[in-house]
């Protein structure tokens, strides 16, 4: 079923590959009375789907197939699974038309070869839902947004090829990647823009080796105008795949074809990634995507609610923004939970309702982002003892981590300045304020310190 297949491809981009393969790929899809019915192999799987993925699946099913609801049932289908086994093919529909220039390595079940001269035959897996217009800008992602726009308006230019967007999970990197691809397509409808995640690239390459079709694998990339490759950190440790990507990269750059990549950290931090590949990735423009600030988080909640035609007050939006600090996916998941629970109970989404419904999520977030945990993580990162970080020693070795931990506590927790000072061996709130201001000033001018800040936020959000 095309709607479920497209939903599954979107879920692959949003959730870890292992989770998708374990819980979502085994599901069988059918349609009943304008409902998408997903058949689960057992009750354990069904409960996990309902708890973790159902709200998002409902959104995608409505978007791609106009289904009014998604129903989970235990059962199996006598037909083949919708998604072919990853050992034999990538995540593509059995009945999808084969894009021009992309052969059976990508579409193993397709039987009709379209006219290569017809550009509309090329689909490229772009998700049209993600555009620049519905991307919420803030101080944390403004540079990345500008870079993606620059690439979309002038693809292939040497000073921004490749474009590398890097940062933690759920910060909008894939959204910007799709937005750039969709804008390139809008400006040039004949452009052949291919989106793949790294797992799809690897699976297709391995299959080309098994079928002795390496030349076909290379040719299929020669006919595209832009390659959008998601989550390149998953190439780490896969030497043969990295070798092939290295040659694909060189071929595309050599013919002025645009490459856009995402990674969950700066590539030089990725263990198992070849040095020459890290060097290539530094050729173009690398831009970080940082966790959104408080105001941007609230704007994201309001925008997501408006897109779903759901009334959410500013008070609720700012509550979620205050309690959930790390990424957009957490905010969206919390909003999905509120909407689903409100529909189930018939209650309005008020502040009290949100606090009641999300109590456990808020508690878990508070535990992760507690001041003691921040102190522990910062001390471990800088290789100092917690007692020295909390102590009065004025050596730079201890002052920098101390200021960093205070600033992170102010940024990531709801604690007041006096409360933070008390946690740091009873320091005065003016001392904490001074530390936060010094840290903000240094981050603007010290690239290494800014990089440390981003790494620590990622560690605290894991």
Structure characterization notes:
The radius of gyration is 24 Å and the shape is globular. The strands form two sheets. The chain has a five-stranded parallel beta sheet with strand order 5-6-7-4-8, with helices on both faces. Strands 1-2-3 form a three-stranded mixed beta sheet. Mean pLDDT is 83; it is low at 78-103 and 108-120. The protein is of the alpha/beta class and 462 residues long. The chain contains 21 helices and eight strands.
The major β-sheet equals: 5 strands, parallel
Strand content: 5-15%
> Which structural class should the secondary elements be placed in?
alpha/beta
Mean pLDDT across residues? 83
Low-confidence stretches: 78-103, 108-120
Q: How do the strands line up in the largest sheet? A: 5-6-7-4-8
Q: Report the strand count.
A: 8
Structure characteristics:
462 residues, alpha/beta, five-stranded parallel sheet, three-stranded mixed sheet, 21 helices, 8 strands, 9% strand
Chart the SSEs and their pairings.
Blueprint: H1 2-14, H2 17-24, E1 28-32, E2 35-40, H3 43-52, H4 54-65, E3 69-74, H5 142-153, E4 163-166, H6 173-187, E5 193-197, H7 198-210, H8 214-222, E6 226-230, H9 239-254, E7 258-263, H10 275-281, E8 285-288, H11 294-307, H12 314-323, H13 328-345, H14 351-357, H15 359-368, H16 371-382, H17 386-390, H18 396-412, H19 417-423, H20 429-445, H21 447-461
Helix pairs in contact: 1-4, 5-6, 7-8, 11-12, 11-13, 16-18, 18-20, 19-20, 20-21
